[in-house]
Amino acid sequence: MALVPAPQSTGRVLELGCYMQLTPLFQRMCGYREVRGAYLGTPGRVDTRTLSFADGEFSCLVDHFDAERDPFPYPDNHFDLVVATEIIEHMIFDPLHLLLESRRVLAEGGVLLLSTPNAAALAVVAKVLEGADNPQIYPQYKRPNPLEPETGHVHEYTAIELGRTVEAAGFEIDRLFTTYLDEYANHHRLLSLLAANGYRTDHRGEQTWCLAIKHSGLPVNRYPSFLYYEP
After folding, report:
1. Cα 123 to Cα 149: distance, rounded to the nearest angstrom
2. Rounded distance, CA 221 to CA 94, Å?
3. 196: in domain
4. C-beta of residue 113 within 8 angstroms of C-beta of residue 1
5. Residue 108 sits in which domain range?
6. Is it the case that residue 90 has pLDDT exceeding 90?
């Protein structure tokens, strides 16, 4: 929430992958006048979700669609902020579609806020050196649940790769950094090993954060070669 910018021209925010955890805070703490949610499902379906607080209720509309295949059901330049936390790593087919549609529905100067696990984290380096476990931060499959289908982590990004991906979608990077998770603190000793062998030591936290700004004049690379291949 500390990274959420103040409302700008529209006062609207869209949260992709809406679980009603941060959702009410965009209005109650950050001052957005309209909060909209999105969730994977059949296009055209719209739910109303409500949470009760001591001083009243919060409710918002949640639209269902596939964020990497369907056009987002919103007009151009509609939101000041699009939030996509812990979602891009789940994309199966076309992550740039999500980013380009986010760019389209953002007003000029609007902000995209992303978070995702870091594929180059110290925890990943430790797993590779130990050679036993899958090096992704979250490699497990979710147990099948027909009522709540979910795709696991298809592609975990390095922080630098995420920045390049966001730039390919025509955004200017405002902030890009990683943070460490306490559960992996015992791996911090690997920083000296990396430095001693000429490897970079920045962007080694387990969580990547990115704030990016929409500027209409920036170029778009629809299928960057580091992310897509042509069969």
Report:
1. 28
2. 13
3. no
4. no
5. 12-117+151-185+209-214
6. yes
Q: Are 66 and 149 in contact (CB under 8 A)?
A: no
Amino acid at position 223, single letter: Y
Say which CATH number the domain at 164 has. Answer: 3.40.50.150
In angstroms, the CA 44 to CA 98 distance is: 18
**Within 13 Å and on the Cβ side, how many CA atoms surround 141?**
4
Domain tally, the chain: 1
Q: What is the pLDDT of residue 70?
A: 98
Residue at token pair 């630098």: 160
- Residue at 59 is within a domain: yes
**Residue reference for tokens 């070669």:** 225
CA 94 to each of CA 66, 68, 127, 165: distance values in angstroms, whole numbers, following the listed order = 11, 5, 28, 12
Determine, yes or no, domain membership for 37: yes
Please report, for residues 125, 126, 140, 142, 193, the alpha-carbon distance to residue 132 in angstroms, rounded to integers and kept in the order given.
12, 10, 14, 21, 20
Lowest mean pLDDT among 102-116, 135-149, 183-197, 198-212: 135-149
Residues written for the chain: 231
User: How much is the mean pLDDT over the chain?
Assistant: 96
H helices of the chain, where? 23-28, 95-105, 122-130, 159-168, 190-196
Q: Residue 57's beta-bridge partner residues?
A: 52
pTM for the structure as a whole:
0.96
Residue 138 domain-assigned?
no
Instruction: State residue 85's pLDDT score.
Output: 97
